[in-house]
Structure formats: structure tokens, C-alpha cells
Amino acid sequence: MAHLLGTHSLHLALPDRVLLDDVTVGIDEGDRIGVVGRNGDGKSTLLSLLARRRDPDAGRVTVRGGVRVGVLDQQDDARPGTSVRTRVVGDRPEYEWASDPRIRDVLAGLLGGVDLEADVSSLSGGQLRRVHLAELLVGDWDVLLLDEPTNHLDVEGISWLAEHLRRRWTPRDGGLVVITHDRWFLDAVCTRMWEVHDGVVDPFEGGYAAYVLQRVERDRQAAAAESKRQNLMRKELAWLRRGAPARTSKPKFRIDAANELIAGEPPVRDTVELTQLATSRLGRDVIDVLDVDAGYDDTPVLEDVTLHIGPADRIGVLGPNGAGKSTLLALVTGELEPMAGRVKRGKTVTVRQVSQRLTGLADHLDARVSDVVGRYRTSYRAGKDEVSPGQLLERLGFTAAHQKVRVKSLSGGQQRRLDLLLTLLEEPNVLVLDEPTNDMDTDMLAAMEDLLDTWPGPLIVVSHDRYLLERVTDTQYAVLDGAVRHVPGGVEQYLQLRRDGEGARAAGPSGTGRSAATDGSAGTGRGTSAEAGSGMGPTPVTGAQAHAARKELAATERRMDRLSTQMEALHERMAAHDQADYVGLQELTEELRGLEAENETLEERWLELSELLT
Asked: DSSP label at 74?
């Protein structure tokens, strides 16, 4: 692969610390690189250096002659006097840009609901972000450097962007470096990962799931000081191995080493214990939304909604922006009274919401973090353990120094974590989270998910973070066309409904029957089965087809075993190879990528055959 862009011995220091030290990385044709790391460790700075928008203190950035580099940063230009159309396609006549399939695809995927003649200064933050991204994607670039491109995008927008980036170049052309906290997106798009931490950049092969596997192995061999971080990653790996194959059609790895690493690792949640605790605290009936119409100023937003929330339900809510997700949450929390129908709550129900606006911190901005937490309670039960508020702060990434800082001086991600912690310390028995992942890095997301795994009560989560929804919730509902319906197929079924242009009305009224976590009958409720969502039942498999599938499955597994042995041997050859022989290493890398690509194809076929035979 030809070299496109790279760095040599980059060094950059801030007044109080070294941000990047002797960093040498390269981007070759065909590279799709995801960048992860803690907030403040230098991810965006590295991208600015690669884009040559910032000069290092030492070292250099090299770009091959003629290579065109496009950059998306986190700042969106909203200077007035420019229309959306001009911003995206310039002064070109309409017949010219409208005949370009790439431009049509970008406009349809990102700006379908935006007035092209509107002034950019009149747009919302989310719309402006889409315009900025569209302006970049209509261009012809050899390398794209994207800093948080999924911010303000809903599940559909993120899915479209992933597909666009997969199809933008051939597998051996173009280069992509993307910073994002969206772990599903990293797995869907990236074939390599960079972890920025402690002044260095560690490379990993594969997407996010493969990165977790390799990082667990690295942490397993690290010093005891890394043990807490290691255990958290082991838990996430266990979920990836056990849950992801059932939730996605594209598993990223099937390696015996992964199973060895999680041997003996318990499920991420003790479902039986949590259900018993929740039932003892709440009883069997929690919140029932019964035939409700709801809206504002006599204008209905949701109609004929029926939703049953049981004592241990973990519900994810999906829907496009403006569909009525916040209205549904307001019904659950009691902030909004229904226009028709009724909302029935158990006598002991106490609902708390962690909102995007961080309203829970408004009265504490001038206080120190430790003082604020100390006002609530001296202990908190997390699963089977009794922990102090200080220990909870440590679990959520607050060091001793952070605990002495005033709340108003915390970063956005730290404030969001503190708001969640204060809500938990109030010990409500129903927890509502509205976009809880904003401003959090992947490590903190894992820490937050680990804490939520011990939550003994109903959990309702609204988020565009697909990974989070699949990780912490057990059943999903979609808000579509003014109705709420159960989507037993999860995010994939929701996206298919959106692609097909099917609203909840087309499959019947709002999701009836209790959620799967409540009584297991959701699949038989009106408009809730997978067949109802697709309009067809499963196709029966004949005996001959099953026999052929079993034979192919066995052959696929044998070939995957051989590939695994070949890749392991190739890794050993690369480790023993002269590291100064770049040409030889490049040849071995190409051979390894070919084996990995074949193995990934076989994994997909293996999953298809397994599902066919179940």
C-alpha cells in the first residue's frame, strides 16, 4: 500500500505536561483508522497535527505529493449571509451538482430535512453540524480526518455515514482517520485503531471489538496498577463475545484466546438478583401508560400509546429527532399530563431523570465535588457491594484532585458523570437517561455501563449511541409517526422500518403487551413481532437444505481454524522480523490483511448458517 500521510517523532508539550512524545504513525492507502483515548489525552491535537493546522514542538508531518486531505473539526462555522446550498455545493449551477451521484447521496443522507435556501446562521447546532459534514463529504479527498463526525447525528444518520464511508473508496484506496466515542461506528467502519494515552499512540489491528480483545491481553500482562482498568475491559469483552453475535450480522473476531480470557467471567448483569431486588422495592406494577394521547398546546405529538414498564425492565427508546421521544419521557416522569388516556403509577414509584441539560447540577455549581456528594449519603449499594460515595466517584473517573474541584470548573463529560452519580445517590427506583453519553470517552462509557449493570430497577434510556443501547438495555421501543411500538429486532429492525418508510401506524397501534423483560409476551403483542415488522414470517428450511447447510458450516469452521493457525504463525513471523525492513514488514502486513479479510467473510457466512439452523 502506498503511503499517504504520516508523522515522525512528534513532540508537543503543554505548560503542565507532555501531550505527545516521540509519536510516529502512518496512514497508507486503504487504512480506516479509529482513534480512542481518554478526554484530554490528545486525540484532537493529533488530528490537528496530521492536518498541519498546528505545528509540533519537534518532529514533522509528511504528506505524499498530490494527496488531498479533508478535515472535519469540532467547530462549525455559522457566519451569516451564506445559504446552505452555497455552503455545500458553492456557486455551481444546479444541473451540474444535481447530476453528481455523490452529492445527491450526501444531500439525501444528511440534509433531507434542511431547507437548502436557509441561511446557515438560522440553523440549529445539529443541522449546522450536518451541513459542515456534507460540505466536506461532497469533496474529492484522498484522506479524510474526522473529529467526532457522529455528534448530533441520530441512529439513521450514523448508519448512513458508516455506509457512505465504507463505499466511498475501494478497499485499497483512500485513507480515513476518525475520532469518535461511538463504538458501533468504530466497529462498522474501522480496520485499525489508535489508542492515544500517556503521550504515546498504540496501534491495534481490527475495529473496536478486536481492540478490546488486544487491550485486555495487554492489560493482563501489565502492572497491578492497571488491574481495575483491566477488569472493566474484561467485562466489556465478555459482553461483546456473548451479546454481540446475537445482535449484529458482522462479528469482528472469533478467536479462542478471547474465550480463554473471559473464562469464568460472570454475565455483565445478575438478572435474577436484580429482578428480585426490583420486585421487592416496587412490587409487580410500576408504570403503565394506557391508551394515551399526549402533546402540547392541544397539538398531539403521540397518539394511542400503551406501554407497560415492569420492575426490572431495561428499555431503550429509538426514534428520529422530533419524533416525540422527549414527550414519551415526560409522560413516564410525570412532567406531562396526557391529553387522553391515563398513566398509572405504583404507590412507591420514584422517578429521576438525568437530562441533557444537567439540571441536577444547577444548585451546586460553586461547591466542590466532594462536598456535593457528601450531602447525599454515606454509603450506596452497587449490586452486592456496599460502597462509599468516594468509591463511586473513583469508579466514574474522579481522582482525588478532581474531587476537590468546583463543579462549574469540571469538563462537560465530568459534569455529566457527576449528574448521574447524584441521581443514583438519591436512590430513586425508576431511572430515566436522556442522551447520557455526550462528552464521554470510551473508557468512561464503559465505567458508566458497569455502574448501570448494578441498577436494581427499571431503566429507560434515550440515546443515538447504538452500542450503549444494546449494552445496557434488554428491549427496545421505537417512536415513529406519533406512535410507540416494540421492535424485538432492536436497532436493525428500527433502521429497516425507517428505510421502508413504515411508521408505527402501518403495523398497528402502539406496542401492546409487556416488554420481554416483564413477562416474555412482547413478541405476541399487537404490532410487536419481528414478522409484523417485516410483513412476512420466517421461511421454512427443508431437510435437504439443512443437511447442505450443516456440511457447509463444518467446512467453514475447518477453514476458519486453518486461517487462525496461519494468522498466528504470521504474527510470530512479523514479531521476529527485522523491524527496520519496512518493505518486508509491509509484505507480511498485506498477507495478514488478506487472511483477515477472508476470515471476516467466513465469519459472516458462519453466522448466517448458524442462524439458518437454529
From this structure: S
Sign of CA dihedral 161, 166, 170, 173: positive
pLDDT tens-place string over residues 493-521? 899 888 887 443 344 444 433 333 333 33
Measured CA to CA, the distance from residue 370 to residue 392 in angstroms comes to: 11
What is the rounded CA–CA span in Å between residue 120 and residue 132? 10
With cell 515522525, the residue in question is 8
d(CA 54, CA 43) in angstroms, rounded, equals 13
Give the sheet arrangement for strand 430-434, strand by strand: 351-354, 430-434, 459-462, 314-318, 475-480, 483-486
- The C-alpha cell at 106 is 450526501
Encode 480-510: b = buried (16+ Cβ within 10 Å), e = exposed: bbbbbbbbbbbbebbbebbeeebbbbbbbbb
How many C-beta neighbours within 10 Å does residue 284 have?
Answer: 10
Q: State which amino acid sits at residue 212.
A: V
Would you say 464 and 487 are in contact if contact means Cβ atoms under 8 Å apart? Answer: no
Residue-by-residue DSSP string for 510-565: S--S--TTTTS-GGGSTTTSHHHHHTS-PPP--HHHHHHHHHHHHHHHHHHHHHHH
Q: Average model confidence (pLDDT) for the chain?
A: 80
| SS3 track for 311-336 | CCCEEEEECCCCCCHHHHHHHHHCCC
For residue 519, the Cα-to-chain-centroid distance in whole angstroms is 28
Task: Report the candidate in 517, 497, 516 with the shortest Cα–Cα distance to residue 507.
Answer: 497
The model's pTM: 0.66
The answer to whether 293 and 339 are in contact (CB under 8 A) is yes
